[in-house]
Design a protein that fits this description.
Chains A, B: Keywords: Isomerase, Metal-binding. Two copies of one chain form a homodimer. Chain A is of the alpha+beta class and 134 residues long. Chain A has three helices and nine strands. Chain A has one domain: 2,3-Dihydroxybiphenyl 1,2-Dioxygenase, domain 1 (Roll), CATH 3.10.180.10.
Chain lengths: 134, 134
């Protein structure tokens, strides 16, 4: 069912410093910051040859990653995103297997303009899993 | 400098359950457990079309992931692994940029039989980074 790893998201306490470090120390292809008000984050995508790293920084008062950065002040790996062909079929299958979908269970439009869902980390080895329909 | 994302490693409290879940609930191509005594882990690789997920479970008394699982009993994302062409050149460049290499700074042979190094997570937004020469 799951296809490509679309991205790995890393929450960072300083988006400029993290972008500079990936560009300079790690020599990667780093994009420009993009505000995603609907998701409460500013993101920077790092293009690797086979997938992307998504740097996440809180945007606004109710950012879903503020709590994560309070618990992890240096930052940390926040989630992985797997691609699926049909997000509704994927959701229904996962729910039938006992996995919990976060929020109201309906897909939202994600940072790439595609429908996304998040699965409960307690059901996936402490790993927050995003599914994105491609 | 960094190339492909070689894998994302997830430490899990139950390797069989996690393997079954990736196979059944997520419909992925899940390999067989491989003991890596030199690294103190048993690993299961999950082949995605563009990269791999590496499930990690402690092996032996002094496993480097036992402490991680004590702190994160449900498991969690443990590290990301980026490919490099020349691990010594990569190490020297990163050290010149102020990044710390774990251990004695010399590459070890990793789970794929290739030289690997780990970078200090405090220097990389709380994210443990493995470099693998390919």
């Amino acid at each position: 069912m799951i296809g490509r790893l679309n991205h790995v998201a890393i929450a960072v306490p300083d988006l400029q410093a993290a972008s500079d470090q990936y560009r300079t120390a790690l020599g990667a292809n780093v994009g420009k910051p993009q505000d995603e008000p609907a998701h409460g984050v500013t993101v920077v995508f790092i293009e690797l040859p086979n997938t992307k790293i998504e740097l996440l920084y809180p945007l606004g008062e109710d950012s879903p990653i503020s709590g994560f950065l309070e618990k992890n002040p240096s930052g940390g790996i926040h989630h992985v995103c797997y691609e699926v062909d049909d997000i509704i079929a994927a959701r229904d299958h996962l729910q039938s297997e006992g996995a919990r979908v976060l929020g109201n269970g309906e897909p939202k439009i994600g940072a790439h303009g595609k429908p996304v869902l998040f699965l409960h980390p307690k059901d996936f080895n402490g790993c927050l899993v995003e599914l994105e329909e491609v």
